[in-house]
Amino acid sequence: xxxxxxxxxxxxxxxxxxxxxxxxxxxxxxxxxxxxxxxxxxxxxxxxxxxxxxxxxxxxxxxxxxxxxxxxxxxxxxxxxxxxxxxxxxxxxxxxxxxxxxxxxxxxxxxxxxxxxxxxxxxxxxxxxxxxxxxxxxxxxxxxxxxxxxxxxxxxxxxxxxxxxxxxxxxxxxxxxxxxxxxxxxxxxxxxxxxxxxxxxxxxxxxxxxxxxxxxxxxxxxxxxxxxxxxxxxxxxxxxxxxxxxxxxxxxxxxxxxxxxxxxxxxxxxxxxxxxxxxxxxxxxxxxxxxxxxxxxxxxxxxxxxxxxxxxxxxxxxxxxxxxxxxxxxxxxxxxxxxxxxxxxxxxxxxxxxxxxxxxxxxxxxxxxxxxxxxxxxxxxxxxxxxxxxx
Length: 391
Prior knowledge:
The protein has a 5-stranded mixed sheet. It has 391 residues and is mainly beta. The chain has helices at residues 3-17, 316-321, 381-389, and strands at 41-43, 51-55, 66-69, 76-81, 89-94, 119-124, 130-136, 142-146, 157-158, 165-173, 179-185, 200-207, 218-223, 228-235, 242-248, 256-260, 271-272, 279-286, 292-298, 309-314, 327-332, 349-352, 358-364, 373-379. Helices cover 8% and strands 36% of the residues.
């Protein structure tokens, strides 16, 4: 067996036993998918009647919202920072499926000390008790808990002696009732007084008690060749597989995907995605007809909407088989920020109402030379289908 084959064999063996996937040159010999896409593009950017302002404050940066839909099918809660990640956490509620939003709601004093993008999730313990949890990242990762659907909250408290970036971007309930949460770090925040490294590391942590406590993190993958981060997990339609969509932060390759067939005990080797699914902060939900809608910031290397808030429509099987999907959609056009960066937008929330309406919520620079603010865009896939078919 030659040296290259031996390396491949060792790396695959690590994946099978669930070890950290840390072979730095995992992509060197892999054929590169297209850096662009050939599927149709539906453009909703000029469709102003779909755009609902969730929050805007003159002169204030408002960014990075996540959302959660409650079981009544119409109440949505969103949290977001007053700032680029770092800043006091703001919370709002919609009781009508995102058509209108409350004033800013009262939050605990410690929420003013948030250091990074907050994320909100619904968790249910094995006795059926429902809670909401909000995470705030960097070191240490902290969490607040609500047992009354967001009416009252605990203060932010550390969940352990570790930190991370965009914690926890994805939280998934496992079939045994446990939860897995995923995040990443570049060496600066995983431990106190950390320092940036040349590698990016993916981590996961498990909760056995419905999200109240979290175990020490497990390292999933690290590399200095590709920087995989901001994991977004989608479960297969039959419930047997998890797909983790990943941002590639060195911007040398497309986005990536990893799969788990054993409820996050092990994950496959990262595989590069088509250009059609290349972006940051993938958030996906199933429409009633079984298709997936995935929202993200467009970082496709060759794209007319690069830097904008976009979405992808397709089947889960398209992801598995490396296909482009059905079509893409530009939700809103994003303008450059004060530093001239044209991709400061789209850490999205995606919710699906009972009538099939998708409520997508994010931040962006929606007007030139203005700070970002938070908006929702509402649509049904049938409406997008009609536009795609009319091209």
